[in-house]
What does this fold into?
Amino acid sequence: MHLIQISIASRFIRQRQNACLLKILEKEQDSSDMFMVDGGHSLAHLSLLQDDAFQYRTVSVEHLQDMQDYMDALRRKGLFSTNSVFRSYVDNKSFKVPQDFPDAKSIIVVAVYVPLASVNVHYQNQIHKILIPPNYRVQDFTTEQLRTTIAKKVVTQNGYRIEGSRNRLFLKHLAVRSGLAEYGRNNICYVKGMGSMLSLYAFFTDYAFKEDHWREVCMMEFCRSCRICINECLTHAISDGRFVIDVERCVSLYNEIVGEIPGWIPVRAHNALIGCLRCQLRCPANKEVVSRAVELGNLTESETSSILECAGNDDVVIALCEKLKVSTPEAARNDLPVFSRNLKMLLEAIQGHAYDKVRNSPAASQSGH
It folds into this structure.
């Protein structure tokens, strides 16, 4: 059985993660309260994440070669797509100790809970609830805050270096191998209490943990007799035959970059502003977390029109950054073509579904329509 998590969304959101900076006031700290991060800089002034907002596991860097061998074997067997977009996401990843941190002894892999979100889109005098997957939202914390949280709540001892992986690792595979997560049949990783609504991070440190949570690759037990995600995937990216999804049939590969969406993808396959949630929304492992979805607010008719018309005005920047939380002021105008195209397709899918429901209703049948 071969399992690999295809991390398409991570590239998109990581580019924006550090741009979502909070206004944090620095204050003097006693040197005994300082933690060394990336060459000795103190992050003691940053606020910490709450305990219930994240989970973590630790593994020794000695396991990096095992994970690299696993990935190399998948490549040799032809299970890595040759799609140029996908390869641009994964070809720079490898399981190695950073060259500038040869003394690293452990890896801390962290899952931060990010609830599913929705926004009410006002369009042609109707209101449509549009979903936004967690892994595309700009978070309300910085990676620096997360690092100082790890320093104080996980490492807990002064003087140790903690450095982010800089998206060089296959984070979801690492999360599964560390025991933090389990794979679903859809190749997405799930964390207890979070389902698949999360964002993953990894940190190298020269602190040697006593606990090494290493384990073999595993899939959630009930996935073995469940076919929900297979049936829900309209593009047949998920199959019984293998546990590495067919990346080139995954909607997310196409709707997070500029360009035309392939004609073979059915309109009704579009279900979120960006990315795809079809295999996750009805997943039993997500039943509770989907019910905890948060509402981000409303897009006015004017804001919706501005996005659809790809107008790079201030309304669009406000809508993408402050309401949808899918971009930053610096990137919003460059991101606009993607969101404009996706919103058009999504509204078309929603309106087409509504038309089909009316056409197939008992009242329509009785009236001869």
